[in-house]
Specification:
Blueprint: H1 3-17, E1 24-31, H2 36-51, E2 60-67, H3 73-85, E3 90-92, H4 97-110, E4 114-116, E5 129-131, H5 136-145
Parallel strand pairs: 1-2, 1-3, 3-4, 4-5
Helix pairs in contact: 1-2, 3-4
Length: 146
């Protein structure tokens, strides 16, 4: 299991531990055509959580995985709005900064968690962003120790 798969699994378990979990949890995944590893991690993590009878009794996870263009934020915006129309509980991805910003803005506006696993040197506090990539200051400490 990769670190990314583990973190996605942890995040899904956190969602599942909230009291008053609905019967259906819709999760959106935005991926570029070359993001096969992220697609597999997303599918595996949701399947792992779904198969554990203690995590989500009487709840079904529905995943909505969409391929999005790497540099066309307008098209990505339309895809996010499509996902929001389906009642998603969280959005995972995309991996590029040029399209991730519009996703973050839309998620902040609707208070929907946005999960990333990419380097983002400008992490805004107070937003609905959950970034699984280590903060730059943490990476700097690791480099200094070597």
């Amino acid at each position: 299991m990769t670190v990314q798969t583990a973190w996605i699994s942890v995040f899904l378990q956190v969602i599942a531990s909230v009291s008053g979990v609905p019967e259906v949890i819709n999760l959106g995944g935005l991926f570029h055509s070359t993001d096969e590893i992220q697609k597999v991690a997303f599918k595996c993590a949701t399947e792992m959580v779904q198969k554990d009878p203690h995590l989500l009794p009487n709840t079904t996870i529905l995943t909505h995985m969409l391929d999005v263009p790497r540099y066309d934020s307008f098209q990505v915006q339309l895809k996010v709005c499509e996902l929001m129309g389906k009642g998603i509980s969280a959005v995972f991805g995309p991996q590029t900064g040029s399209t991730s910003s519009i996703v973050q803005s839309l998620c902040d506006n609707k208070e929907i968690p946005h999960v990333q696993s990419r380097w983002d040197y400008y992490q805004r506090r107070g937003s609905c962003l959950v970034n699984l990539y280590p903060h730059p200051s943490v990476l700097l400490k690791v480099c200094k120790k070597k």
